[in-house]
Amino acid sequence: MKTLALALLVVILAVPSTHAADLDRTAVDFKTPAEITWVRNAAGTNEQALLFGDPSKPGPYVVRIKWFPGNMSRPHFHPNDRFFVVVSGTWWMGTGERFDPASTVSAPAGSYVIHYGGKVHYDGAKDEETIIQVWGMGPATATPAEKR
Question: Which fold, 46-125?
């Protein structure tokens, strides 16, 4: 009898509860890293994951950008301020219309960065994959510096 009771107890503890907490997704929503969809850009220099909003439309948006090693953007500017957090890796930044990766400044993981609207900059990853999270107001456009 004790063996049967012990076996029943083991089975009860091993089976997950069917009364697990339910989450009201209209109140709180989330995605695990495995559920985040990454899309490679046409140039093959990075992948983006849309987390909130739509950068092509007016309004707030949040995206993650995974830059592949050795890829940097050319000098450009955005019409609106954009705010970044370096999630992993090292983010390299330069200013001015002359593209000079050797003169860039590093921002390690955990850094907070602001790209001010209308100001020319270039940035990217050098020796390692780098993930940044970007907040901004759409529409998010980039204009090459030479078209200023």
Answer: Jelly Rolls (2.60.120)
